[in-house]
Amino acid sequence: MKPQVGDIIQVKEEHWPTVGLHSGLVTQLVTWPEDLFDPAKSPLVDYVVFQDPSLINPVQLQTQYVEVISRA
Fold first, then answer.
1. pTM score
2. Which of 7, 15, 28, 48 could form a cystine bridge with 19, CB 3.0-4.6 A?
3. Whole-angstrom Cα distance, residue 54 to residue 34?
4. How many CB atoms lie within 10 A of CB 66?
């Protein structure tokens, strides 16, 4: 399930040793390039920006490392 703005996400368990145990509210989605002519084409960059309440700055991670735990 792909994250959307307003969802609560966490880092997938298999990535905790390298990324850390983070979770938070998704504030932004970024995909590049945005191909308006072929939406089926996968983007080169696909990541989420989320705010972990235990950190001051937002966290930016590729979507493959996170999972949705609560929908907006």
1. 0.81
2. 15
3. 32
4. 25
